[in-house]
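User: Please fill in residues for this 456-position structure.
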């Protein structure tokens, strides 16, 4: 009897772990670095806007963001956010392929698939728990082998049910994406081309192509066959890509490659013999990462020779100068870039340059620039950090503490956010806007700290 009890307990634990693993399938990858860049975010917004509208959503409420991950992937994880891996952009041959991916992900958002994962989980868990009861009963009755067999089949059935649910959602998103592309007047050629890339990857990995039963996604070949029939009869099938959008994509791709890749790889992909704008862009980042500021600036100057008032080329020049220890020289190009775009990320860089001069005369402008940047984009920890430096410089320690609390709060550092918010409230006048904001941060952070403590 004791052996049977231990066996029952072991299978109960196994069932609990299996159920938990199903929940993990619906959870996106965490702790991935978001690549925030003014030009990239503007491009993603413009590229996706017609697709977002076609999906019946408001473009200003949907964000397409890039995360630093070399894998070819994109996903949604709640809210109206599409997360695109840098590896996907590097692998894409043209903007049309990225549009196809984004359209698919918008299908997940519009279909509420992240929320509806709970439906698939409910059915899968129902099968798991039912088999658990039957299996435990069989073991208790003395049929240990039969009981374990029932439990094993139950777990397999639960996983199969969940995977079938996931595949159905992927197929639904494929067709929804095709509708959005059609409504936006964008060809589906890029979508098919990218699925063929994925299919080639499956071939290289020797993934069986005869059965998608054990997969969260349908086989790429299956998806290609279905979508080909939809796309080839669409009026937009032979519509060419927008040349301006394609040119912007080539710049973004080169910039990302230069930023995330090893310099040697970047210089191999974009050799000196390539004198195109994207190549200069990529090499500028490669040389800057390699600590060759003169070579980086030479590449940037080549870009500015072609487009003297391009705000993103000016931004890059300012960045190279600032990070090479020349903050005063960085201010003019950054100031012009801000005047041309009013972009908060570039404004934050300008604020940083002004502070880095350590010239008291520049701190007033830095505060103005940083406050305007935060008013337009509060989700920028570095802007809050720089604003805190300004407040501390002028002796306003309560507001410096509040800026620090804001920064730690968005970084998920709840204990530090709580301490900083409490410190801010000690010096702020009760009832003021800043005091109430510090109070809000303290309340939310305290609850988060307490929740984490209970989980230990």
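Assistant: Residues filled in for all 456 positions:
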């Amino acid at each position: 009897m004791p052996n049977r009890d231990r066996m029952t307990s072991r299978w109960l634990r196994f069932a609990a772990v299996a159920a938990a693993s199903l929940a993990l399938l619906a959870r996106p990858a965490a702790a991935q670095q978001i690549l925030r860049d003014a030009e990239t975010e503007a491009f993603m917004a413009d590229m996706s806007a017609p697709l977002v509208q076609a999906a019946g959503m408001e473009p200003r409420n949907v964000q397409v963001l890039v995360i630093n991950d070399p894998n070819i992937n994109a996903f949604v994880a709640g809210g109206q956010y599409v997360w695109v891996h840098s590896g996907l952009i590097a692998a894409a041959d043209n903007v049309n392929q990225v549009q196809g991916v984004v359209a698919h992900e918008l299908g997940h958002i519009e279909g509420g698939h992240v929320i509806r994962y709970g439906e698939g989980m409910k059915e899968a868990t129902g099968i798991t728990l039912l088999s658990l009861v039957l299996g435990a009963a069989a073991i208790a009755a003395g049929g240990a082998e039969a009981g374990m067999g029932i439990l094993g089949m139950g777990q397999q059935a639960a996983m199969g049910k969940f995977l079938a649910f996931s595949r159905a959602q992927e197929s639904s998103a494929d067709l929804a994406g095709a509708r959005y592309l059609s409504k936006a007047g964008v060809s589906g050629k890029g979508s098919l081309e990218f699925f063929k890339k994925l299919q080639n990857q499956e071939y290289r990995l020797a993934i069986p192509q005869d059965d998608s039963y054990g997969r969260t996604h349908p086989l790429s070949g299956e998806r290609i066959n279905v979508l080909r029939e939809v796309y080839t009869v669409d009026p937009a099938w032979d519509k060419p890509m927008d040349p301006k959008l394609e040119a912007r994509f080539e710049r973004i791709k080169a910039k990302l490659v230069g930023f995330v890749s090893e310099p040697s790889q970047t210089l191999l992909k974009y050799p000196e013999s390539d004198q195109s704008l994207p190549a200069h862009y990529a090499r500028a980042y490669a040389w800057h990462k390699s600590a060759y500021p003169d070579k980086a600036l030479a590449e940037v100057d080549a870009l500015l020779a072609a487009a003297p008032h391009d705000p993103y080329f000016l931004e890059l020049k300012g960045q190279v100068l600032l990070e090479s220890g020349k903050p005063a020289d960085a201010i003019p190009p950054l100031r012009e870039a801000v005047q041309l775009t009013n972009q908060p990320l570039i404004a934050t860089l300008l604020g940083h340059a002004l502070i880095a001069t350590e010239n008291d005369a520049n701190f007033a402008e830095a505060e103005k620039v940083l406050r305007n940047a935060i008013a337009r984009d509060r989700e920028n920890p570095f802007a809050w950090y720089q604003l805190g430096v300004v407040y501390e410089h002028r002796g306003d320690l309560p507001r410096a503490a509040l800026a620090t609390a804001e920064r730690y709060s968005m970084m998920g550092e709840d204990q530090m956010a709580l301490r900083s918010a409490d410190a801010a409230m000690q010096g702020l006048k009760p009832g003021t806007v800043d005091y109430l904001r510090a109070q809000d941060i303290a309340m939310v952070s305290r609850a988060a700290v307490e929740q984490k403590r209970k989980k230990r």
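For context: The radius of gyration is 27 Å.
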